[in-house]
């Protein structure tokens, strides 16, 4: 079978067979994400009809209470993961605390925890721009047989066993890695099947796109300001193009395909940027490194940052290797 015709289900099966002693738990988990992604996709695609069918908080034609899409995605992902009984814990950007999940045998025998941002960039929904789901998977460090603990969710990103995203865009694409490269699967909506469309995704080493919310420019550190000016200067292969959707998954995905750098810097002395380390920075950094790119806080490899709280924020610069290394040079020169 050629790669192009391979479905996500076949890909998961083939990958699992490559590890004769694997329990299949991770494969089942990816399968559950695939299912929740399809359910969410179906709802996201109808978002433009909201004016016709009624806004969030209203009652729809079936007499059900309509929910905001980010709440809907949160519920669907959590429900799907709990029902399948394949994780021992879930943390979501939409929930204050983590959820401990018992296995179907009642013995807390599952080994993976998942952290999800169920619908990232949800402010884009109103304008029909693309949004995404981001997920990050770790093996628990607390003993099997007991409920999960906070420390299972606060592992550094370098301990991730898998990470990925679903982009609900012009097409819906699921991109993920289990630590052996990055592959993308596009949904055929007529069949409800994901097909391997982007095997072995790699960041081009050089890119010509920089993505940052320049409205925050005055608050950036001097090194970041200098790098942005460098991107804009007419020299060598510059100026670069500025592209910013304001939807991390979409901005990242475009840069992964075309080559570029995504930046969400610290804003002034008080804050640590906007993005959440555990739900956004770590999975995106894992994918970046698996795709031959670089992901940094400006001072430190993202994957080496030790989280201290579930919803902690961190600065993120990621993308094409040479671009991110230039950025690091500017940031360090300033300190
Ligand atoms: P969210 O998790 O509340 O949706 O926020 C995360 C989003 C990212 O997708 C995006 O890159 C960023 O926020 C945009 O923020 P800003 O509007 O400040 O540029
Ligand atoms: Mg988010």
Count, helices:
9
Strand neighbour order, sheet with most strands: 2-1-3-4-5-6-7-8
Structural class: alpha+beta
β-sheet strand percentage = 15-25%
Can you give the mean pLDDT? 91
| Estimated helix fraction | 25-40%
Q: Give the low-pLDDT segments.
A: 59-66
Could you say which small molecules are bound to this protein? 2,5-anhydro-1,6-di-O-phosphono-D-mannitol, magnesium ion
Rg on CA atoms, Å: 20 Å
Number of DSSP strand runs: 13
The shape, in one word, is: globular
Order of helices and strands: HHHHEEEEHEEEEEHEHEHEEH
Largest sheet: 8 strands, mixed
Distance between the termini: 54 Å
Structure write-up:
By secondary structure, the protein is of the alpha+beta class. 31% of the residues lie in helices and 20% in strands. It is built from nine helices and 13 strands. The chain has helices at residues 8-17, 25-45, 50-53, 69-84, 150-153, 222-232, 248-258, 277-290, 321-333, and strands at residues 89-92, 99-100, 112-120, 131-139, 160-168, 172-177, 183-188, 193-198, 209-211, 241-242, 261-264, 294-296, 316-319. The strands form two sheets. The protein has an eight-stranded mixed sheet with strand order 2-1-3-4-5-6-7-8, with helices on both faces. A hairpin with a 5-residue loop joins strand 6 and strand 7. Helix 1 (8-17) packs antiparallel against helix 2 (25-45). The longest helix has 21 residues, at 25-45. The protein is globular, with a radius of gyration of 20 Å. It starts with 7 loop residues before the first helix and ends with a helix. Mean pLDDT is 91; it is low at 59-66. It binds 2,5-anhydro-1,6-di-O-phosphono-D-mannitol and magnesium ion (MG). The site of 2,5-anhydro-1,6-di-O-phosphono-D-mannitol has 11 residues, from strand 3 and helix 7. 2,5-anhydro-1,6-di-O-phosphono-D-mannitol binds next to strand 3 and helix 7.
């Amino acid at each position: 079978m050629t790669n192009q015709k391979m479905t996500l289900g076949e890909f998961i099966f083939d990958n699992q067979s490559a590890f004769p002693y694997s329990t299949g738990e991770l494969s089942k988990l990816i399968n559950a994400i695939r299912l929740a992604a399809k359910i969410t996709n179906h709802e996201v695609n109808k978002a433009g009809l909201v004016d016709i069918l009624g806004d969030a908080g209203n009652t729809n034609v079936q007499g059900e209470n309509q929910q905001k899409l980010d709440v809907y995605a949160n519920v669907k992902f959590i429900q799907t993961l709990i029902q399948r009984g394949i994780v021992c814990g879930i943390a979501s950007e939409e929930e204050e605390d983590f959820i401990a999940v018992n296995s179907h045998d009642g013995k807390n025998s599952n080994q993976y925890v998942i952290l999800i941002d169920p619908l990232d960039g949800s402010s884009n929904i109103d304008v029909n721009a693309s949004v995404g789901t981001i997920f990050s998977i770790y093996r628990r460090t607390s003993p099997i047989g007991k409920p999960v603990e906070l420390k299972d969710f606060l592992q550094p990103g370098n301990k991730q066993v898998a990470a990925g995203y679903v982009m609900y865009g012009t097409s819906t694409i699921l991109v993920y890695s289990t630590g052996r490269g990055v592959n993308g699967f596009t949904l055929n909506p007529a069949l409800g099947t994901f097909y391997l469309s982007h095997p072995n995704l790699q960041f081009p080493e050089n890119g010509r796109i920089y993505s940052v919310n320049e409205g925050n420019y005055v608050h950036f550190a001097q090194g970041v300001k200098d790098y942005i000016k460098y991107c804009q200067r007419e020299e060598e292969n510059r100026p670069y193009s500025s592209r910013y959707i304001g939807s991390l998954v979409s901005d990242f995905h475009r840069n992964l395909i075309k080559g570029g750098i995504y930046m969400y810097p610290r804003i002034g002395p008080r804050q640590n940027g906007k993005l959440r380390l555990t739900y956004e920075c770590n999975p995106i950094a894992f994918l970046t490194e698996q795709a031959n790119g670089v992901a940094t806080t400006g001072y430190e490899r993202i994957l080496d940052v030790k989280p201290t709280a579930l919803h902690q924020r961190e600065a993120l610069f990621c993308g094409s290797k040479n671009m991110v290394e230039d950025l690091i040079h500017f940031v360090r020169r300033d300190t």
